[in-house]
Amino acid sequence: MANRLNVIYLPGRGADPTWEREVVAAIGPKHNLTIYDESKPLEPQFADVDAVVDLGGSWGTREMLDAAPKVKFWQIMGTGMEHFDFDYWSTRPVMISNCPGPMSAIPLAEHAILLMMLVRRNYPQQVVNLANGLMYQPMGFELAGQTLLCIGFGASARELSKRAKGFGMRVIATDIVEVDDATREEWGADAVYPADRLDDLIPQADVISLHLHVTPETRHTLDARRIAMMKPTSIIVNVARGALVDEEAMIAAVREGRIAGAGTDVATQEPPSPGSPLLTTPGIVVTPHTAGVTDGTARRRAEGSAVNIDRIAEGLDPLHRVDRLPKV
Q1: Is residue 185 among the annotated active site residues?
Q2: Angle of helix 295-313 relative to helix 105-120, nearest 10 degrees?
Q3: Is 289 tagged catalytic?
Q4: Beta strand 32-35 with 51-54: parallel, antiparallel or unpaired?
């Protein structure tokens, strides 16, 4: 058996205990695992640490890295890396990995379907009507026969495509890489186009769903100009990152009736301020960044992290390294 490593888990303030249970189950039997306690001094907790498992990638601090002279691996239990301090970590020879899209693709796809249905059936108004004794209203709209446009055709979009076909939707997508016919057919998409065709496809879509990482190039992919191209009966769904959409332009379009609504699990500012129009605009359904927060995601990410800890113990490179990516 490879060497037992000293591993510390950063659970994140307020995180559901399921995450910690899965990490303990996956890593605890093979390595010396401790749970970070923010009420205790940093130095004794990090002095002998070989590897860190960081829930989401935003809980690790510069002070933690400075207090860990022996650390050689930092595992992010998340996909997006926009909150991670690459510049500071690059001052140390520490390998960094994340948990790629397939580990959370299923719940993201399920949640996108949920948001589509909540918006299309005007669920917030249904709750109000029921509380006021008003039955049989409002009128809902079916997904069957509608066109879903996925911006990006990675893991979560592919899982969404498969499920949307089960609802009788037509699925089209864009991607920066070419998708062969066999892959397209496997996931149920009717067509996948190059990313530069996006402007041509937006007017066709009844539902636009975003599936991209945030980079300077993808920020506001759905901006005011593109929102203006949408049909007045169409909606936006976002289970990826808030910065992919011009939030103010989206809110204005819903308020003014230029699009029919939006369902989003993410926001430009998280959490949104209590008085944010994102939370108060009729036609917009918001959930608190929970699309990927499921038992399955916790298990898959913990197991993926455990594989990497084992690889480090065996002297191998971890899978899914991101420290080699260009700084953006």
Answers
A1: no
A2: 160
A3: yes
A4: unpaired
The catalytic position among 219, 258, 289, 320 is 289
Residue/partner pairs of 118-125 with CB below 8 Å, 24 or more apart: 118/263, 118/285, 119/235, 119/237, 119/260, 119/261, 119/262, 119/263, 119/283, 119/285, 120/235, 120/261, 122/261, 122/283, 123/285, 124/282, 124/285, 125/282
pLDDT band at 82 (very low <50, low <70, confident <90, very high): confident
> Tokens 């002095």 correspond to what residue?
47
Q: Which residue among the candidates 38, 43, 270, 314 is catalytic per the annotation?
A: 270
| pTM score | 0.92
Q: Hey, what are 282's tokens?
A: 């009729």
Average pLDDT in the chain: 95
For this structure, is 255 an active site residue?
no
Segment 27-73, tens digit of pLDDT: 999 999 999 999 999 999 999 999 999 998 778 999 999 999 999 99
Q: What are the helix (H) ranges across 145-197?
A: 155-166, 181-186
